[in-house]
Structure to design on (204 residues):
């Protein structure tokens, strides 16, 4: 049988554990189908997040699909093979993860149109290494034509993301611009280009 002092010690230890658990960080799950469907909506920083990327890609695709170039592609019904050249980061932000997500989102959006066939980026990256090109290099017409012929693609999607970073009275704002163009490999002609913008701000 436990002594009174031991019972008291147990109660104190148990209370300490409960208190510690109550003060510990608690994980939450958010998104559709959870108790927190709007968890991703608030901005937590001036960096690009999933909401921003979704908006930028969707808005670009909306203008692309409404263009005479894309309508002509659809009317031909030959589903040309396209590839995505790495997007150049010209902002002051270190957003490597966001850039990878952006490329994947563009790839997914193009595939889901059903109007074109898209080269898998893993296959493209492997061929880049094989021909000795610099991984993630900025778009170069000569290199693009050489790689495009090896991949058998007709068009490259390429571009950059830039940002205007401003600060005033404790407020910081970055105006992001995603500029993308579609270039025909054989001729180097720009068939379509558009700029989509998104602003982020935080007050300190």
């Amino acid at each position: 049988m436990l002594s009174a002092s031991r019972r008291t010690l147990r109660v104190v230890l148990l209370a300490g554990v409960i208190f510690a658990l109550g003060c510990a960080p608690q994980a939450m799950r958010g998104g559709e189908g959870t108790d927190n469907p709007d968890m991703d909506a608030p901005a937590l920083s001036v960096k690009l997040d999933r909401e921003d990327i979704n908006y930028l890609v969707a808005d670009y695709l909306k203008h692309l699909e409404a263009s005479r170039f894309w309508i002509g592609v659809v009317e031909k019904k030959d589903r040309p093979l396209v590839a995505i050249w790495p997007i150049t980061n010209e902002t002051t932000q270190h957003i490597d993860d966001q850039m990878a997500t952006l490329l994947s989102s563009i790839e997914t959006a193009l595939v889901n149109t059903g109007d074109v066939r898209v080269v898998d980026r893993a296959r493209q990256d492997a061929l880049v290494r094989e021909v000795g090109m610099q991984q993630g290099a900025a778009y170069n017409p000569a290199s693009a034509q050489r790689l495009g012929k090896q991949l058998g693609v007709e068009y490259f999607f390429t571009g950059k993301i830039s940002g205007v970073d401003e600060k005033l009275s404790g407020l910081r704002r970055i105006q992001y611009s995603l500029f993308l163009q579609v270039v025909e490999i054989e001729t180097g002609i720009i068939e379509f280009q558009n700029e989509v913008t998104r602003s982020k701000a935080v007050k300190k």
